[in-house]
Amino acid sequence: MTFYSYEYLVEQNSTPNFLFIAVTFALALALLVTGFLYFRNRNDNKYRDLLLIFVLGTVLFIGINYNNYEKQLDVSNKTNQTLTLMRSIAKEKKVSVKKLYSNSASPTEGMLIKNGEKFYRVSFDTNQSSYTLTNSNLVDSSNVTLKK
To answer: Which residues cross the membrane (predicted)?
Structure first.
């Protein structure tokens, strides 16, 4: 069973998609160059065709990746909820958030929180506005891996 530290979740939540940014930047640069060449040589149809190809490629690329962007936002929001839960538990148990580990990046019913050698099961109410911690024991605690 894998447990994630508070710092690990923060780091995973703040990592931007560099590939998306790089490809978008390259397409924007290509659009600028071909647009400049087209407006400079209006009689040459190859620059117009090239500009149209880059415009359509950019629209297609952004359209395809918009769905991925929305999924990334959803994962980010759920991770933020888990981080808020971990801060609340740290305050309740009077420990540092650096000592807490979660077995899930999103707040789910029955998720486990590790505090030192103790494990807690988290139960939420119907709208996840409050939680209950219950002491829990693992069947095989030698199978625990921590991602810091």
So the answer is: 18-38, 50-69
User: For the whole model, what pTM was predicted?
Assistant: 0.71
From CA 17, how far away is CA 146, in angstroms rounded? Answer: 25
| Total domains present in the chain | 1
Q: Find the domain containing 139 and state its range.
A: 2-147
Distance CA 76, CA 97 (A): 19
